[in-house]
């Protein structure tokens, strides 16, 4: 049995679905179901006895203790977090609560449980913390990519809260010997991503005939990784990672935002041309920049390849095509997540930005 937190979110749900597709080890899936968590994504597992869903806040120590005692997991995969940078700017409190206090509470619950294990079970236990490349801060155009020794320099409330959580994880290894692993990954894209993030937002707005908002000059650079590749990397680190170590995960795919948006527009022009016949790129609008917007992220993923043998399987082109197709074929899922809270966010966040 493994325990996954945040398994109703984008990456966590992809991880759980892939895990149960490839094997039979059960999963207890711990998720508070915030606006970003979506039970619909897990619908294919509704009658699957290998999947146990627990609607629990990771800040709730008593509930976590019960889950550990009941299910006795051999590993924790910790995905749960507040994950959207723009929301961390308009409301940082939730980020400190979930990402810092929540990770601390997870570590305390895991430590108490692990201390009660004996022999082989204790030795085999793992706590894998899923983190981000944003903790390293921003690069200039010619700087080398982030590696595992790059100093932390977080710039947004989101990245600062993730950095704090990474430090706690590190401290629990050095102080208590808790068998932890940390991964720092670049921007993910793929099925089931909540459409507040650049790629699904662009696809959905394009199809709806709405503006495609590009912050600032559109030249900010991100490294993009297909979510299935991230999940495979996490499985690899869980299986073979060295205790207390960190592994950078990336796609070797640095792209400027404006180029990502143009690629999406061109793919949609081909797969689902607009009814007017106009290219989707005509809908691009440059809008006010994100405050403190990091200019460039780039990941040097040499270590995980050299030491653990992982490399992404998808290229940017194959991953983007799969992703666009998925959004075209899953309009019901989109309708389910683009109501209520989402509409409110879109109306308030983008109001008057053009
Ligand atoms: P997401 O926002 O899509 O999902 C987060 C999930 O966590 C949701 O299901 C939500 O309900 C749950 N959650 C939030 N607060 C909770 C709480 N207090 N208790 C229990 N559950 C809670 O996020 P994501 O994009 O899937 O990211 C998952 C993890 O990967 C995060 O830790 C994020 O920092 C990290 N990460 C994301 C990316 C990316 O590009 N999306 C890249 C690198 C790392
Ligand atoms: O780098 C890893 C990180 O990637 C993860 O840790 C975060 O959880 C995840 O949200 C993502 O952060 P970003 O801020 O890079 O992702 P986002 O999709 O919000 O934005 C990607 C880029 O596109 C960024 O430079 C901001 C820009 N952007 C974003 C939105 C939502 C726009 O130009 N317009 C937009 O409307």
TrEMBL record:
Tell me the NCBIfam families matching this sequence: dTDP_gluc_dehyt
> Enzyme class, one word?
lyase
Q: Which GO terms describe its molecular function?
A: dTDP-glucose 4,6-dehydratase activity
Swiss-Prot/TrEMBL keywords: Lyase, NAD
Which interval of the chain is the signal sequence?
none
What family does the entry list? Belongs to the NAD(P)-dependent epimerase/dehydratase family. dTDP-glucose dehydratase subfamily.
- Mention one GO biological process in which this protein takes part, according to its record: nucleotide-sugar metabolic process
Which gene holds the coding sequence for this protein?
rffG_1
Q: Which Pfam families match?
A: GDP_Man_Dehyd
- The highest taxon in the source lineage is Bacteria
Q: Which residues form a coiled coil?
A: none
> Which reaction(s) are listed as its catalytic activity?
dTDP-alpha-D-glucose = dTDP-4-dehydro-6-deoxy-alpha-D-glucose + H2O
Query: Which residues belong to any copy of the NAD(P)-binding domain?
Result: 3-323
Name this protein carries in UniProt: dTDP-glucose 4,6-dehydratase
Give EC number(s), comma-separated. Answer: 4.2.1.46
SUPFAM superfamilies, per the entry: NAD(P)-binding Rossmann-fold domains
For activity, the cofactor(s) needed are: NAD(+)
